[in-house]
Amino acid sequence: MKIEYGAMADEYAKYRHTDSAAVERLVVGGGVGRGSRVLEIGCGTGNYISEIQKRTGCEGKGVDPAPEMIAEARHPNSRIAYYAGRAEHLPLADGAFDFAFSVDVIHHVADRAAYFREAWRVLSVDGLLATLTDSEDTIRRRMPLAFYFPETIEHELRRYPTLAELRQHAEQAGLEVVGEEVVETRYGLTDLGAIRRKAFSCLRLISEAAFVAGLAGMARDLERGPIPCVSRNYLMWNRKRAGARAEPHDATRAVSIRTAAGAGLG
Q1: Is the separation of the CB atoms in 133 and 19 below 8 Å?
Q2: Is there a contact between 184 and 21 (Cβ–Cβ < 8 Å)?
Q3: CB 149 within 8 A of CB 121
Q4: Mind listing the pLDDT tens digit for each residue in 208-233?
Q5: Which of 99, 125, 156, 210 is in the most buried spot, having the most CB atoms within 10 Å?
Q6: 75, exposed or middle or buried, with CB in 10 Å at 0-12, 13-18, 19+?
Q7: CB-CB contact of 99 with 130 (8 Å)
């Protein structure tokens, strides 16, 4: 099932908000401050780049393929420059950014190797790339989505790349893997508006019967009080080293497995 994200711009603007722990890690780990040149790849309605710009005074830019998303993004923060474009072909100059990041975007990118090659191209030497996404573990442990809508799990495992694939693509693009971590936020869910409007794309992949059943279960539990939830996101850090060059794609190259815990990232 193909999801038209432009048609979801209104739901994203109303119901998709930043994760405070993720914002903190991006700012601190990315070394973002006033004057930093920061790019959000697949910015959607711009909530992350806007929040980071407000907090730090950085020079922020965002790229997204959906014009409806960009139209929504321009409302809250006019200091961000937004561009229509895809992660595989960024409409931006070489070496223009100190820090680039994406949040829950890489599984939407058709050519993930090109995402990393383009990130390498637009980053300055020693620039950082942060890719915030989901691993198999975080998908299986999602609360509330995996608990109330378990049918989403297999759909998501098919959509999301494995961590090994991400590491391989990054290294082939000339981006060193310098850290990996899981960012976690706990909260109490008190409103089902985002769920009812299917503001999470995985809810549009399951049957209507499964959706109705999961929603009914959430509504029953919410009558007893806020639903305890936890957001977990896998975060991979890459650095563009001096002298590094993107390599041509080689499907036979061995995957380098790293488990660094974000050392030297603030």
Answers
A1: no
A2: yes
A3: no
A4: 999 999 999 999 999 999 999 999 99
A5: 99
A6: exposed
A7: yes
Q: What are phi and psi of 157, to 5 degrees?
A: -65, -30
All domains of the chain, ordered by start, with CATH?
5-134+161-186+231-240 (3.40.50.150)
SS3 category, 193: helix
Q: Identify the DSSP state of 143.
A: B
Tokens 């790019």 belong to residue: 39
Q: Kindly report the number of other CB atoms within 10 A of residue 168's CB atom.
A: 24
Residue 64 φ then ψ, to 5°: -155, 145
Tell me the pLDDT of the chain averaged across its residues: 87
SS3 200: coil
Mean pLDDT score, 54-82: 89
Cβ atoms of residues 36 and 103 within 8 Å? no
The per-residue pLDDT for 245 is 64
Q: Which of 103, 109, 101 is nearest to 175 (CA)?
A: 101
| Res 253 pLDDT > 50 | no
CA angle 18, 153, 189 (to 5 degrees): 40
Cβ–Cβ < 8 Å for 184, 22 = no
Give me the residues paired with residue 235 across strands: 132, 181
Tokens coding 163: 């961590």
Q: Are 12 and 69 in contact (CB under 8 A)?
A: yes
